[in-house]
Amino acid sequence: MGSPPRLVYRLIKERFLETPLSAEGARRWGGRWNPPGVGILYTSSSPELTLLEQLVHLPTLPYDDLPRLCLLTLALPEEPRMVLPDELPPSWRDEAHFSANHARLAGWLQNPDVLAIGVPSAVVSESLNFLIHPRHPLFAGIEVIESKPFPIDPRLWRIGASEV
What we know:
Blueprint: E1 6-13, H1 24-29, E2 41-44, H2 47-55, E3 69-76, E4 81-82, H3 98-104, H4 106-110, E5 116-120, E6 128-132, E7 143-149
Parallel strand pairs: 4-5
Antiparallel strand pairs: 1-3, 2-6, 3-7, 5-6
């Protein structure tokens, strides 16, 4: 009997529900762990972390203008390989130095030998994000366990509301 699958979480805009495992946005614009032109799927170890990861990227919109989000629970068919903080460049959290992160993962980005890699979150470095490579043969084995609406609590928008 094998170990239970690793569950990871992903928040997506409701309009993308038909393509929940698309890495197209990351392919087009790149990110902390991938350069433009190489798509990977960004996921987190908990719903709370995936919310924090989303919040740091949302523009300063009024609450009523926020996109409708859905929380996906995904089951990975194999355990991710972990990259520990001491294996990362000292500037791994700095947005001006993403190229160092890309270089650290270059081999995996070009030739994914494992489906997913666990990396520390830049928002909460004690927590993990999981990068999933769509070109790995096991990508088709990812199971969407659950998909449900995920409204953002309006209390998160109270800070600075009186300044508007």
